[in-house]
Design brief:
InterPro entries: Beta-lactam/transpept-like (IPR012338), Peptidase_S13 (IPR000667). This protein has 500 residues and is α+β, with helices and mostly antiparallel strands. The chain has helices spanning 16-53, 88-99, 147-158, 282-296, 329-338, 342-356, 362-375, 399-411, 415-420, 483-498; strands at 2-3, 10-11, 59-66, 71-76, 82-83, 105-116, 121-129, 163-164, 168-171, 206-212, 222-226, 233-241, 248-253, 259-267, 273-278, 300-301, 305-307, 319-328, 396-397, 444-451, 454-462, 468-476.
């Protein structure tokens, strides 16, 4: 205590540490005052969006998490299981990157067995040994569907082989022969998104069919198909009509056969239209097309195209390698997510089973994904998985599971491959026509999902302040079309872009 001269007052010294503590407390109070309204605004804004755009009668689950700030932002039914449709592909592709690595390659090998005479006669067979590669198509060869088997045929010819006394054999043994899941929609098995899964596949296990009207009213439509092969039998009952109102035709492949029926009417002024129809028995498809290509190069084949039988599986010592073609997992993952290609997802799923569990089956692949999910911190009683693509409605995951996966992959060493595989808003893939306007264009990288009654959108948002937010918006029990569900998802994404 110190007396002040000329007064009876006493001056007290206040310690500096006490003043600093008061200032710090004041700042903390201000921060809490400033931050609370912001969090309340985010919550209230999303609730308002739901109030305005949530489709009547639907069940919605949402999880949003700021990766930049490491905190949850908004949740709605976050731990309830939802049918996720093609959002299942996020788990399939992420598991593949974690367990197989971005450098994993598929290797398809061409062998011969028997002896080759000096005059070019192979007294034996040609074997195509599959690796589960989904990339044997024209997708990476300027649309030339038969580019890869043509390369194989040219290599065989350069090897001096002119006659093959035996067979062209498809070795699909890396996978089992459960081509489709019982849970897939039985009335849609002709559609490209229900393509069968095989250890040896070709052209996404589909045939490309182009339909165009006849020049003569009432005449049958013109049909072209690629590859040009005897493997399919197309029965054309589609007629040309001058009435636009009657324009309606459909495709149907008879189950367990390769008889494809086209019926209905095609309008005389419509442009040519392409469809992709699935085939039955993929390895035999590959062997048949390859045999036909060899024959087109004047290589005589005395045997037939066929699939390897069980008694031939342990004769590797008799095989002589001719060549190997490779493709990358990176390519496969990009097609899976950008294009939402179910066939690719299922091929990757069985690849996981074959490589990690030594069993190329749906169930073995699903076991690997389950192992990964357990690493994310979830138990098997919290979810259901039934395939790799999401075509099955038995796949049920929670919004929090999806954002946990997205957070994990954002920090993973393969993050670049994973993120580049996702559709970009207003730019490419299945988001090309959504969120096209600025400032939303290119700020959302996300996987779409659709099966009847379900719409899903999960991925990443980069805000205007460069904050990264992982999100999942799942809408189930939709009655009718999905446009309202998509409008809800887009509205939430737009808000997240500008929320800070």
């Amino acid at each position: 205590m110190k007396l002040i001269p000329g007064t009876n007052q006493t001056r007290y010294k206040i310690p500096y540490f006490f003043i600093i503590a008061l200032i710090f407390s004041y700042i903390v109070c201000l921060e809490s005052i400033w931050s609370a309204p912001k969090e309340k605004t985010l919550r209230d804004e999303i609730n308002a969006i739901l109030q305005k755009y949530k489709p009547k009668g639907t069940h919605v689950g949402i999880s949003t998490f700021s990766i930049s700030k490491n905190k949850s932002l908004y949740k709605l039914n976050p731990n309830e299981p939802f049918v996720v449709a093609s959002n299942m592909k996020l788990f399939t592709t992420a598991t593949a990157l974690v367990y197989l690595g971005a450098g994993f390659e598929y290797k398809t090998k061409i062998f011969y067995r028997g002896n080759i005479s000096t005059d070019g006669k192979l007294d034996g067979d040609i074997i195509i040994k599959g690796s589960g590669d989904p990339n044997i198509s024209g997708r990476f060869y300027e649309g030339k569907i038969s580019a890869i088997p043509t390369y194989w045929a040219d290599a065989i010819k350069k090897h001096g082989i002119k006659v093959i006394t035996g067979d062209i054999i498809a070795d699909d043994s890396i996978f089992d022969r459960e081509y489709i899941r019982d849970s897939w929609p039985k009335d849609q098995l002709s559609e490209w998104y229900c393509a069968p899964v095989s250890g040896l596949s070709f052209n996404d296990n589909c045939i490309d069919i182009v339909v165009r009207p006849s020049k003569k009213p009432g005449g049958l439509a013109y049909i072209q198909f690629k590859p040009e092969t005897s493997y399919v039998n197309i029965i054309n009952k589609c007629k040309t009509t001058t009435f636009k109102s009657k324009h309606s035709y459909s495709f149907h492949r008879k189950p367990l056969t390769n008889q494809i029926y086209i019926k209905g009417n095609i309008w005389s002024k419509t442009k040519p239209h392409k469809e992709w129809i699935t085939i039955h028995n993929p390895p035999l498809y590959m062997a048949t097309v390859f045999k036909e290509i060899l024959e087109s190069k004047d290589i005589r084949i005395m045997g037939k195209a066929r699939v390897i039988n069980e008694s031939e599986l342990n004769i590797n010592s008799q095989l002589h390698k001719l060549l190997v073609t490779t493709s990358s997992l990176r390519q496969a993952i990009k097609v899976t997510n950008k294009r939402s290609q179910g066939f690719y997802a299922e091929q990757i799923l069985k690849t996981l089973g074959a490589t990690i569990k030594n069993e190329g089956t749906f169930s073995a692949g699903l076991d690997v994904i389950s192992n990964f999910i357990s690493k994310l911190g979830f138990s098997e009683d919290q979810y259901q998985i039934d395939d790799g693509s999401g075509l099955s409605k038995k796949n049920k995951l929670t919004p929090v599971m999806i954002t946990r996966l997205l957070r994990y992959m954002y920090r993973h060493k393969c993050a670049g491959v994973f993120l580049k595989s996702l559709p970009i808003s207003g730019t490419d893939g299945t988001l090309k026509k959504r969120l096209k306007k600025e400032p939303y264009k290119s700020r959302i990288k996300a996987k779409t999902g659709y099966v009847r009654g379900v719409s899903a959108l999960s991925g990443y948002v980069k805000t205007l302040n460069e904050e990264i937010i992982a999100f999942s918006i799942l809408v189930n029990e939709i009655k009718g079309g999905t446009w309202q569900a998509k409008r809800l998802q887009d509205a939430i994404c737009r808000f997240l872009v500008t929320c800070n």
